[in-house]
Amino acid sequence: MHTDVGAMRPDAALRARHRDIELSAPIHVSVTSAYALYIPIAGGTAPAQVIARLRLAAQAIGADDVVDIETSTSCDSGISALRYLAGWVTTEARGTAVRYRRPSP
Predict the structure, then answer these.
(1) Is residue 65 a contact partner of residue 103, using CB atoms and an 8 Å limit?
(2) Total structural domains within the chain
(3) Distance, CA of 95 to CA of 75 (rounded, Å)
């Protein structure tokens, strides 16, 4: 698993769409799994598992949620399906980790 996380900072474009967001950071998770006879050896490349890892990485940096999530799997169709036959699958998820404004007491 590979995770890239940017710094939490104010983002005017994101706050224009979601007014209650205080800080945001780009976040990207990539999981690669090897297969032997179509049985996964390591990883867990189902999109739901990768999104769960994305949310855990966001919580680790103090974010409340992840918005604008996109996922892609390398062996969906076309020539990349050959990677699946060779026993190699990569799933990526990316989004924006956000921290919401806390109400004033």
Answers:
(1) no
(2) 1
(3) 21
Residue 96 lies in a domain: yes
The model's pLDDT over 38-82, given as tens digits with 9 standing for 90+, comes to: 666 766 778 888 888 889 988 988 889 898 899 887 765 566 666
CATH number at residue 81: 3.30.110
Domain assignment present for 105: no
pTM across the whole model: 0.73
Which H or E element spans position 21? Answer: strand 21-36
pLDDT in tens, 4-47: 777 677 777 776 677 788 888 889 888 877 777 666 676 677 88
